[in-house]
Amino acid sequence: LHGLPNPSHNFENDEIVIEDKKPPLLPVSKTPEVELSKPFIQAKEQGLDYIQPALANNAAIPLNGFCPVPEMKVYLPVPPKTTVFRRQRPLPQADEQLLSDTVKRWHDEGIICLAPAGNPHNNPLTLAAKKDSKGIKSAKR
């Protein structure tokens, strides 16, 4: 297939060998000399000191809190007498416990709350398998 590594068969030990000729994503070489220099290390420390208050403020936001930056507020205006309802897609039975546990945790932490009785709006929940840095599927989220 076009774009895939070309497999070759090794008849001696009956294995298929796939050669990946792409370079590694991260350089394997040692730390560049410039990063070991005193001016670079001082500049790096100054930069980290400069952003430290912002990192501390970010870490202090409670799990059930909202981002305090006004520009990050999301508005979802729904005109009166409008129904926004999407039917829940069927989920694999094997994923139901994961979804139930996650929704319970969100509710316990105050991230979500129960909708009022008779609420005409519904957005379905979905699960997606995420991949790690090596392309291996990790837990669904």
Descriptive report:
By secondary structure, this protein is of the alpha+beta class. 30% of the residues lie in helices and 11% in strands. The protein is built from 3 helices and 4 strands, in the order E-E-H-H-H-E-E. It has helices at residues 33-36, 38-59, 93-108, and strands at residues 7-10, 15-18, 129-131, 137-140. The strands form 2 sheets. Strands 1-2 form a two-stranded antiparallel ribbon. A two-stranded antiparallel sheet has the order 3-4. It is flat and about 65 Å long. The model has no long low-confidence stretch (mean pLDDT 79). Residues 122-141 are annotated as: Disordered. InterPro entries: DNA/RNA_pol_sf.
How is this structure best summarized?
InterPro entries: DNA/RNA_pol_sf (IPR043502). Residues 122-141 are annotated as: Disordered. By secondary structure, the protein is an alpha+beta fold.
Helices and strands in order:
Layout (H helix, E strand, L loop, with lengths): L6 E4 L4 E4 L14 H4 L1 H22 L33 H16 L20 E3 L5 E4 L1
InterPro entries: DNA/RNA_pol_sf (IPR043502)
Q: What is the N-to-C succession of helices and strands? A: EEHHHEE
- Which range best describes the helical content: under 10%, 10-25%, 25-40%, 40-55%, 55-70% or over 70%? 25-40%
SS element count, helices: 3
Termini separation: 32 Å
Count of β-strands? 4
Largest sheet, order of strands side by side? 1-2
Mean pLDDT, nearest integer? 79
Strand content: 5-15%
Oligomerization state of this entry?
Answer: single chain
